[in-house]
Amino acid sequence: MPTPHRLVNTRELIAGSGPAAPGAAWRLEEPVRDLDSNVIALPAGDGIQTHHGPGLDVLIHVLDGSGTLGTEDGDLPLRPGDLLWMPRGTLRSFTAGADGLVYLTVHQRKPGLQLQPRRPDAMR
C-alpha cells in the first residue's frame, strides 16, 4: 500500500522559466491510484482549441500566468489562484495570456482499455 509523499513542488516546477513549450509539464504517474492530475503549460498566445471535455468532471487550479477560458456562456479571464470546476462534457477552450498560462488539472482516472478474450461463438 503506498504512503503519502511529495510528488512535486509546483512553485519550483514553474519558477522563473514560464512555459517554454505547450503540454504537460508534470503528470501523476503513481501506478496505483484513482485520480489523474497534470500540470499543463501553455506559452504566451498559445492555447487549446474549443472542444467538449471528457465524460468526467475536472478541477482546474491556475498556478501561474494568465489567460482566458472560453465557455458556452462567454470568456472567463484566468489568473493565478483561480479554482475552476469543469463539468463533464462541457464546451471549453484555453488561451494563454502575455505571460503564458500554467494550470493543474485533477480528475477521476479514466479506465484503461481492457482487452477481453473472444467468446468462442464470436469467432465464427
Specify the helix fraction band: under 10%
Contiguous uncertain segments of 5+ residues = none
What is the helix/strand order? HEEEEEEE
Structural class assignment:
mainly beta
Q: Number of helical segments? A: 1
Major beta sheet summary: 7 strands, antiparallel
Find the count of extended strands (DSSP E, 2+ residues): 7
What global shape is seen? globular
Supply Rg: 18 Å
Q: Report mean pLDDT, rounded to a whole number.
A: 85
Distance between the termini: 44 Å
Proportion in β-strands: over 45%
Structural account:
- With 124 residues, the protein is mainly beta.
- 4% of the residues lie in helices and 48% in strands.
- It has one helix and seven strands, in the order αβββββββ.
- β1 and β2 form a beta hairpin.
- The longest helix is centred in the N-terminal third of the chain and has 5 residues.
- The model has no long low-confidence stretch (mean pLDDT 85).
Would you kindly provide a brief summary of this structure?
Helices cover 4% and strands 48% of the residues. The chain has 124 residues and is mainly beta.
What's the SSE blueprint?
Layout: H1 10-14, E1 23-27, E2 35-42, E3 47-52, E4 58-71, E5 74-78, E6 83-86, E7 91-108
Antiparallel strand pairs: 1-2, 2-7, 3-7, 4-5, 4-6, 4-7
